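User: Fold this, then the next.

Assistant: Folding the first:
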Amino acid sequence: MDKNKVNLLLLSGLIIFALTSAFLFWQNMNMKKEDNKKAVEQKIIVEKSDIVETFEKGNSTEIEELNEKPCVNIGNQMEYACISEGFLENFYIGVYNPITINSNSKNLSVKISGCDGFIVLTGPNKYDVHVLKRGKATLTVYSNGRILTEKNYRCMPTPNPYPCLWYPRNKGGIISKESLLEKKHIRSNLEDFVFDLSFPVTEFTVSATIDGVIQESNSTSSAITEEQKEIFRQLKSGDKVYFENIKALAPDGTIRELNPLMFKIE
């Protein structure tokens, strides 16, 4: 066999060896990708209002309905976390918004971005979220630097409360002069709200028309003054008395102007 034929056979062998090695390397990489894909498919993320199930086909694991349970551990060893706000749909400015975070991670960390917010740990799985301004915030739960779950919220002020005469509570309408004179304060209350909050009244004005003349008197607290009660004493049946310019201090530190009250003497 001449020298050229030998060289040609050697070159052909090298080419076949290189192609075979490349094919085996490509096949091995594809197998690793498939393994990673299956691992991702088997990961289960459970959240309060949206359960996402991703698992290998043929797995018969069933997820029970959440009902009152904010989190369900499927039983595998992968980490999960979920956020439960209970009755909260938003974060309110100036109050501590309680949340619960359930997770099987032992190295959990929680962060908030937006609304100048911060988080305070109050107990096992319990946190208070405090936000300082309007906007949108994102709550993110980490384990060893890896994101387990995150959720978006709106940050908003608490609604204005409703004023009433106290005590007993009276929000306007027909009232006797005797009952009016017994009132000592104006209070403000938020009805059917998620928090029991205090909005102390800081000032208000009483006004009434007595014998065709408008009389007014201011109070710089929630208390009805003696001068205002003197206006009450002059009222006759059918006269109207108004409580206006009612202002209250909100939990976020702002002064809120509340709706006026009107009473008619019976």
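Now the next one, as you asked:
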Amino acid sequence: MKANEMVTVQSPETVTVQSREIVTVQSPEMVYANGLQVSYGRHAALQDISFSLPRGEIIGLVGENGSGKSTLMRLLAGMIPSYRGKVRICGMTDLWKAKKRVSFLPAVPFFEKEKNVLQTIECFSGLFPGYRKEMVQTLCARFGLSLSEKLSAFSTGRLALALFILHISREADLCLLDEPFRGIDIKTRQAMKDVLIETVSPEKTFLISTHEILEMEPLFDRIILLKEGHLVFDEAADSLRERTGKAVAEVIREAM
């Protein structure tokens, strides 16, 4: 924080800043967002979005195509510098600095096709301190993925699986997965869900976007529904079922 920056702290959870520059506070949630707005030209991708992501949960981010899901994930990953509103990740308002605490697997990921899995592991180890190489190797063996095979040789589904494994093995507090189950068969999807349940911890949160609502509903502790850039609801899955008397997938279908 600059020496002449004026910051007023009202409580461990509330911070008033006169610019968006670099405040870190104690925060009980993994992510706190208030009044987020993102526009691409005249198109408003996110419109006054406010929500929080608790620590230690698997959270579903759902909505139709174009609802703002990928934009929200890219913002949380520190990839959208121009936005309005306030956001904290692990208590940090500087999203660039928070990036080291965030792992992001985009819907269209970038990867070096000519590298094999082992070479990609070494690349990730150099980029991300504390990268868990042993976890990648263990999961690759569990799913029958060859460490010596080039990523370009994988089928669509096996490539998606390899990238999923590579990203969740980062030592990150917040893991953002944008459509990670796309192109993957139902048996492998179930095994991937098992890995997520095994990996989540009191200090690790997953935010996962998906269109496979009915299948993924049992996995999610919490649901965030976006529609045309607006927040429809941000609610615990059990609370949603109790409040409506319906399955989460049914509530989402009706709201969409």
